[in-house]
Amino acid sequence: MKLFSVILMKRSEEQAGRLYRSLRHSGDMLHNSDQIHITLNHRDGLSEIGVYGVIPHFRLDKDGEKVYAESAEAIAEYLLAEEERSLMGKLIRQEFDYDLEEDCEKIMGYCDQLLYGTGDGENPAGEASDRRKAKIISELTEYLREHTELNLDGFLRFRLKDYMEDLREIAEYAVDEFVMDRQHQEFISLLQYFVYIQEAKVPFVHLIHKGGNDFMLLNDRMELIDTDDKDAVVTVEMLEKDMNFEDMIVSTLISVSPQQIYIHTREPELQVIKTISQIFENRVELCGYCRLCHNLDRTTATEYNKG
Questions:
Q1: Could you tell me the end-to-end alpha-carbon distance of the chain, in angstroms, rounded to an integer?
Q2: Could you tell me the pTM of the whole model?
């Protein structure tokens, strides 16, 4: 007794085999050979997976709903594991007009974070994945109750519009992140060039990171440099008026133009410190611990000298 068949077009035999195995090994009903028989056939570039009820052990009125539910879950898991990333790639190329492989891979990196998360602690991406899976299962279960042939491409195109819209929103967010990151890198490159052509005005400065976004800047005579000085930020404003740069301290450093920057911090991975290191490159030296570091809780150069 044929229950339904799944038609796969433009898929490899390996992909069809993975869906076949997923169906065979899912749930209590599907892998019970006394009640369910599953076949896989390839012909003319098409793959067809058939699911049959074995009479007399299988009864549609009693067992049909469980078969549909188990099949829907197996197909949904296959789509998420095997096809979701490919669907996302098509969206990026066709709807957002990105053709360069390098750009597409970078955008996919942002997509992967949203689709699958990082695996650290709480995982909102995992919860979102569960919601996408639930949408697919719901549509599949309803479809299998009413139809005996499931064309996977047609089903994705016409019945999974909500799911595809979820992917489209993720792709749109990823593209926005990619564009912002590229603009940021272009701006960093501009500042690198500006620093490169500038002549050094002072031999070195000490940038003392007191925690969070709290910094103190000392010149080569251990005197405090005012990071709120409006004249100190003119350089960056001239280069990019529309960009809200990460921290006033970056503008000050560019204006002061030191030959060497000694950064004293317990948080070298902080974004603003990474940015300074990018812009000033070999002029930056990170200090993990010294006498100055030991006095990071001091708020002025005078208090430091007293120590």
A1: 89
A2: 0.76
